[in-house]
Amino acid sequence: MLWLSRKTAFSNIESAVKIAFLLGALSAVVSCISGLFLSANGEYDEATLSWHKWMGLSVALISSICYLSLAHLKSFPWQSLLTYISGSVLFILIFVTGHLGGTLTHGEGFLTQPLETIFRDTIPKAAKKIIRNVQEASVYNDILQPMFQNKCYGCHSSVKQKGGLRMDSREWILKGGKDGDIISAGNPDKSEIYKRLILDPLEEHHMPPKGKPQLTESEIAIIHWWIINGSPFEKKVKELDQPEKMKPILASLQSDTNSSKGVADIPSQKVSPANQTALDELRKTGAAILPVSEGSNYLSANIFPGVKEGNEIATMLEPVSNQLIWLKLNGINLSDSGMRSIGKLTSLIRLSLDNTKITDKGLAQLQGLNHLKYLNLVGTNTSANGVIQLKSLKNIQSIYLYKTKINRAGFEEIKKAFPTAFIDTGGYQVPFLATDTAIVRQVLKPKTGK
């Protein structure tokens, strides 16, 4: 508007420009006064607050200069230059001051997050924390701290301390906020952090506040479980009591170990949603049935030992064969008869059968799983011949065979049958075995005698 008002065709808006600068200057002064009062409550990071304060005062000063230049300094020789320079500086100051203000009131990245959403294909995201074995994970460091960082640090960190509370370290969490402790170890119902989480989202004191990323039901359940176990910061998951309802939630945090090769293990083609009745029946057994990614109809299933007879569970999986691509049956009571149902799950990409009762007979049922990339047979009664009968599965990339009936010669045959696959033998390194050294010496003796 300032630039346009200098043009003859738009000279009639010059008065409007003056009024705009006057109102802007007055608003900036009022904002500075109210901001000084708000800054006294001690909830904000001192460094960010200081910058915001001085930038705000600069906005009030420069906007006043712009108004005075337009309204009262027309006879001044450098009036036009002064107005343009101060207007340009004001534009930059408003942008910086607004960014700092948004950081103070809504958390770091408040104004830049929309840009990250728009350009999410070009701006790198923080890598998700990988938990290979959830039972060995630290409850606080591996599970709770990343959760707090994503959902709580916007209002409770070094940048901003709403209610005088910081949650970016153990010490600050234990210190609590203005109203005292936020955790009552062993008693979630008396813990302020939990009480705020389960309030109606429309309630004023619900946390996180409306408009902020909310915690999922599973995340709230994890916090409840942590508090009821005494809210320990140093213990591992396996050291805490785990009710049946928590087992699938904790299992869902675990990352599959075969993902290290970076293979895309989610099909690109779309699939219809799974039969809801079948899913409900499976979940009643305690099985963890989850989407493999947000918005996907493809599923992962983790079946826990002891919840139901393994062969019966295998049959219950058949109705979701089109959607099920990752399946863990670790340690369940599964025999060769149940493998007929597993062989019908033709969409499977990852399959863990470790520590089950299957043999080569059951393994033969997998010959139709043409999409299979990962197969875990650790601790099973399978032999080299049983594994080799799967050599028609051209997509196989990893096979885990520790504690099976396979000997060293069998491992070599399997490697020939699957030349491009990674064969995990559980640490057996044939060239370094003492018995191999003895065999080499026996081969050399006849040559010496010639």
Description:
The chain is mainly alpha-helical and 450 residues long. It folds into 3 domains: 4-118; 134-251, no CATH class; 258-434, Leucine-rich repeat, LRR (right-handed beta-alpha superhelix), CATH 3.80.10.10. Helices cover 41% and strands 6% of the residues. It has helices at residues 14-38, 46-72, 79-106, 113-118, 139-151, 170-175, 192-197, 217-228, 247-251, 276-284, 310-316, 339-342, 360-363, 384-388, 408-417, 434-449, and strands spanning 288-291, 299-302, 324-328, 350-352, 374-376, 398-400, 422-424. The protein has a 7-stranded mixed beta sheet. A hairpin with a 7-residue loop joins β1 (288-291) and β2 (299-302). The longest helix is centred in the N-terminal third of the chain and has 28 residues, at 79-106.
Keywords:
450 residues; mainly alpha; Leucine-rich repeat, LRR (right-handed beta-alpha superhelix); 3 domains; seven-stranded mixed β-sheet; 16 helices; 7 strands; 6% strand; elongated
Supply the number of structural domains: 3
Q: Using the coordinates shown, work out and report the CATH topology of the largest domain.
A: Leucine-rich repeat, LRR (right-handed beta-alpha superhelix)
Strand order of the largest sheet: 1-2-3-4-5-6-7
Could you state the order of secondary-structure elements as H and E? Answer: HHHHHHHHHHEEHEHEHEHEHEH
What is the number of strand segments? 7
Shape: elongated
Arithmetic mean of pLDDT = 79
Query: Would you tell me the structural class of the helices and strands?
Result: mainly alpha
- In DSSP terms, counting alpha (H) and pi (I) runs of 4 or more, how many helices? 16
The CATH superfamily of the largest domain is Ribonuclease Inhibitor
CATH architecture of the largest domain: Alpha-Beta Horseshoe
**What level of helicity do the residues show?**
40-55%
Percent of residues in beta strands: 5-15%
In whole angstroms, how far apart are the ends? 104 Å
